[in-house]
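Many introductory courses stop at the sequence. We go one step further.
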Amino acid sequence: MNLKYLIFLLISTFSFAQKEKFPSERVDSIIKRIQLPIIPAYQVNVVKLGAKGDSVSNNKPAFDKAMALCKKNNGGTIIVPKGTYKLNGPIHFESNINLKIEKGAKIKFSDNPKDYPMVLTSWEGTMLYNYSPLIYAYECSNIAITGEGTIDGEGGNVWKSFKKKEEAGKNRSRDMNHNNVALTERKFGDGYFLRPQMIQFFNCKNILVENIRIENSPFWCLHLLKSQSVTIRGISYKSLNFNNDGIDPEYSKDVLIENVAFNNGDDNVAIKAGRDHEGRANAKTPSENIVIRNCNFKGLHGVVIGSEMSAGVQNVFVENCKTIGYLKRGIYLKTNADRGGFIKNVFVRNIALDEVEDCLYITANYHGEGKGYQSEISNIYFSDISRNKASESGIVIQGFSDKKIQNLFFKNIEIKEAKNALSNENAENVLMTDVFIGKRATVPSAAK
């Protein structure tokens, strides 16, 4: 081996190893930047505007009036007291407003697609016009959804039936993405069967979602699209329909997700950054500076990055989380050769998993799709992770021979049982310290 190359390799490996410590100071700096919304003192109770919590009456006019009054007063709090309030249509936010859903209160949205006008939104990483999300905030600042009440998306009937009909609309959206079709021509809605998100904050900042319960979403539950300075804490889920991701930050930055009790029909947290051509064209707006801590995972996957991540994902910090039920995969990084972009600077520590299929899964060849735009995956750190059983694999790493995954660090990982311990393909600079998969080897005693 060339002496200069050997010295370079040793220096590079030493430099990489020095970064093994979880960078708590970087987490602290992100959290200090995040601003909670400032809400004016004005308050309005929807009941005083004619709302009836009888689970039958259409309360959309009263909620719209409450939003308009808050806007007229430069913001305020909309109080939803105990009762079940049916809404035949979406809530569209204005700035400087807190929607406070009190304990014992439930907002229950209709599942009639005709109640939801088309708005500018995104669907699986492609910008387009589609049915309005049930709660929609566009270009707002200082907004909040708080209280101990429930939001019910009624996603299990009509919306659920859309899943088997969506293929043509989904493919049309992806063709428009790949062919750079003008946004004004990307009209979907009726006849295309693309389900709306339950809650979407689009181009918003200074956002708080706290203590509410989310149930029965039509599609993704809480979508953070091109937003920043976001705090999500203390919320809980029971949303088990198709594609019911819990939280999807996309092209978003400075996000804190903490003390969340997930129970979802899909990913718990799925960090995204646009799909394919369109995502790569937005390379200046990656998803970044995302902190996930003290959460309970339950659903399909715990924390996922991708697969729509073409603008890049960086600076993700996950710590002090555990499972409270089934997960297919604990931490899952996924992309393919259609995406491009990058996943880098991901730090995961203090994760306790029970029984899952795969513990840590990193693939650059998701579904074996695509060509020409392989992604960069680098600088990924795992430490202090335990799991009782992996019914499939402990650790999976899948790169490409001509685009290897680089700089992976594993420290203090213990998986007590796994069908397949480790699959490591096309990765370089992989460092493992105190990694145990299966039964630990014992120190042989001296021969007598």
